[in-house]
Please model this.
Amino acid sequence: GDDDSGGDGAADDSTGSTATSVAVDPDAPFEARLLREDGPNDGGPGDRLFDAADLDYVRGVTEDEGEHLVGLSLSADGETSFRERLEASGATDDPEPFAVSMTLDGEEVRRVDLDEPTVTALTDAEWNGVVTLPFESASTAESVYASLAAA
Model:
């Protein structure tokens, strides 16, 4: 029961989360690529799914059970092209050999192996274009958020 908010201005957020959504810098060096782990581009850069220019908002960094979460919100156009690229790759038909690699400044910060439930969720009409990325490292999460957040 420590009510001292430290004067950081986050105390007025009724959700109890200190994370705020801010606009994304479209030039941030962040991108997500689709890797096919048994395919012609195994180990290669893969097909781009989205990059900073496809994003509207980034929400940083909340902690949940030892993971540091950064939320990304795709723009309407970004969401459409993301779906089209996912489907064109064949990942919607057979997700198992695919992974999504996210890089910041060319360094991989997160890799997500695709599976049926994940792909179904990403192509569902109800999906609102929000992707939550969990990072084990707080500093990685912070640098992804800091890079994406428009100054």
